[in-house]
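User: Some background: our group keeps a shared notebook of sequences we're curious about, and every so often someone picks one and asks for a predicted structure to add to the entry. Today it's my turn. The entry only has the sequence so far, pasted here. Could you supply the structure so I can complete it?
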Amino acid sequence: MKKHKLVTGIVGALALAASAVIPVSAAEKINVGICVSWPGYAMLKVAEEKGLSPDLDYNFTVFEDPIGGHLATAAGQIDVYMCTNDYTPLIAERGTDVVNVAFTNPSYGVDHIIFSPEVTAENIKGQKVAAPQAYIGHLLMGLMLDSIDVAPGEVEWVNLNSDEAVGPMMSGDLAAAYLYEPWISKVLANRKGAYSAIHTADPAMLKTGIFMDVIYMNKNFIKERRQTALDVMKARWDAVQYWHDHTEEVNKLLADFLQWPEEDVGYVIGTNGKYFEGGIYMYDFDETARVCGALDGEPPFGLRNGSMVDVVTLINEWWVKLGLMDKVVDSSGAVDCSLVSDLVTSGYRQSISAK
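Assistant: Of course. Here's the predicted structure to add to the notebook entry:
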């Protein structure tokens, strides 16, 4: 009995000694915010599930509230935040601890302005139009009105999200509404004569760069954990590469994560590893680097090399036209391309095409 205890004690002591000599390093925790359930925002989930960044431990929060996610990022509760570019001018104006570090993908026709039957450019003045205030639908409605020489004040605005606008569009209470799928199809199928007046795959809309998904980061996260921030960026585009190479597998993974039908994921992000017309177009890393001005060459769809700040300024100008902001501010402090530049300097490259 005593011999057994002695052996057990020796084994235990050796195990403790071994653990002291060979420490087990824990993965570094990263708080990732996703502003709404959307496939384009979930690439870091792919990095997690496929072991592309084993030294990083991702904690995901899906907000379904873009403003709430921005507030959490500004407060340091979220390190990395995936959302739309439309909030960047407000970050610049308010000077919060958040920066836009990369463009990731433009809307490639997923966003539409739908007109009710009999509504035209000539008779829309004075009628009700619906769009969610302060989001891309607000901007798209503004640009559509501008294209037909109608000033924002010449229509009656109703603050509705796409799902909320379907009923009023069906009943004829709205002249026009910002919609995306599946609501576009529902309205067009059930309201004879309704039609799409403009969408984000229109070359004129793509060229603005306005309708873009982006990556935000907390400034203190970048300052205090810069190498980790770089690792997150690399992991995100490594995940894009994995999606390109294993599209069907990843689309199923994203559907499980977001609790979406798998088919719907394909209708947004595509099944060819690059884009879906009527959905989004996924920037590879080189395209993102060109928009940042960190790599030679022209970005897609007529954007200028190094035009990130210009795009944010254009959004700012539209927010002034639409009454959301009072003036155009210097947006350079709300954009930080240094992480992308560092990856370019390190030799990281990526160019993908549709399969």
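Suggested note for the entry: Residues 2-21 form the longest helix (20 residues). The chain has two domains: 28-106+211-345, 111-199.
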